[in-house]
Design goal:
The protein is an alpha/beta fold. The chain contains ten helices and 14 strands. It has a six-stranded parallel β-sheet, sandwiched between helices.
Length: 312
């Protein structure tokens, strides 16, 4: 990563991509390039955001494009291009349409930003992150998927609302795949260091875990068109920030495992340290037999989908 101002590309200027770009600008993280197959769409959103530069007190440039040459030199590329869910769909229903998009986008990134760290957002997240790593041939630590930070943020929100305390004081840990098999971990969810198992009864915790796992679906149902984007776009921006600023945040994210938790050759949500090089370390938590079984069950589901649907 070069010295001086960071450059961050966001592929897909739709709901999640534009929200991510806006949060990146608001946090003054560097120059931003928005890329979409619809050039005018990317250019229009970039110009709109750039015109907010004065009110946001933001000096970096925000430009729109459909040309991969413009992402050259990017330190981070956030990938949000692809179809979102509609009511009644699972994330896995998107695989056919979105795998082709990721092949095209990955080829563009590998050609023009070969040193970037890729933060994947496109669903089905864990499968598309694996596919992106294969398409680009980047080392696994430079391709990471955004899911756990969002799923944990959803859980913290529900916990804070239930206890009646500040969101800021709650830290949650949600592992596993970004789908119905996700694994909320109440034992590792705390309020200012106090495990929630000491603050809430079992029934309430179970209800919170279930609402977390269905958190995206709840919003799809309410919106009736498209899926969540404020929290997802912000979550991706925070991952990009940890990378460009080398903050080394310890967050759950989709990472390629090579033996950790008894799993390999699969991308799945686990705690990682995210710094300038991408995933700098995968943390192996001590899990109970039931927790480990849930995590392995989730990973095995995606491992099966990788071979069945993508031929890996
Ligand atoms: N990982 C997560 O936590 C999470 C959360 C929310 C949404 N998502 C996923 O993020 C993706 C985007 O969601 P959204 O709500 O922003 O959708 P959206 O439809 O608003 O935006 C998608 C954008 O991708 C663009 N696009 C399509 N094909 C492209 C290509 N080949 N190259 C470049 N751009 C292309 C479209 O023109 C569109 O602007 C979806 O797959 C959605 O399921 C993931």
């Amino acid at each position: 990563m070069g010295e001086g101002k960071a450059k961050i590309a966001v592929i897909g200027a739709g709901n999640v991509g534009a929200t991510c770009a806006f949060v990146l600008a608001e946090r003054k993280l560097g120059d931003i390039v928005l890329l979409d197959i619809y050039e005018g769409f990317a250019k229009g959103k970039a110009l709109d955001m750039a015109q907010g530069g004065q009110v946001l007190n933001y000096d970096g440039s925000i430009t729109g494009t459909s040309d991969y040459a413009d992402i050259a030199g990017s330190d981070v590329v956030v990938v949000t291009s692809g179809f979102p869910r509609q009511p009644g769909m699972t994330r896995e229903d998107l695989i056919e349409k979105n795998a082709g998009i990721i092949t095209e986008v990955g080829t563009g990134i590998a050609a023009h930003a070969p040193d970037a760290v890729i933060v994947m957002v496109t669903n089905p997240l864990d499968l598309m992150t694996y596919h992106m790593q294969k398409v680009t041939g980047f080392p696994a630590e430079r391709v990471v998927g955004q899911a756990g930070i969002l799923d944990s943020a959803r859980m913290t929100h529900f916990v804070a609302a239930e206890i009646g305390c500040s969101n800021e004081d709650v830290t949650a840990m949600v592992l596993g795949g970004h789908g119905d098999t996700m694994v909320p971990l109440p034992r590792y969810t705390t309020v200012s260091g106090i495990p929630i198992t000491q603050l809430l009864d079992e029934e309430t915790i179970t209800a919170i875990s279930e609402r977390t796992a269905g958190g995206g679906g709840e919003i799809v149902k309410l919106l009736e068109r498209g899926s969540a984007f404020y929290a997802p776009g912000s979550a991706a921006a925070i991952m990009a920030e940890s990378i460009v600023k080398d903050r080394k945040r310890l967050i759950p994210a989709s990472a390629r495992l090579s033996g950790q938790y008894g799993l390999e050759d699969v991308y799945i949500g686990v705690p990682v340290i995210l710094g300038r090089g991408g995933i700098e370390r995968i943390i192996e938590l001590e899990l109970t037999d039931a927790e480990l079984e849930s995590l392995q069950g989730s990973a095995n589901f995606y491992r099966g989908q990788l071979s069945e649907l993508l031929g890996y």
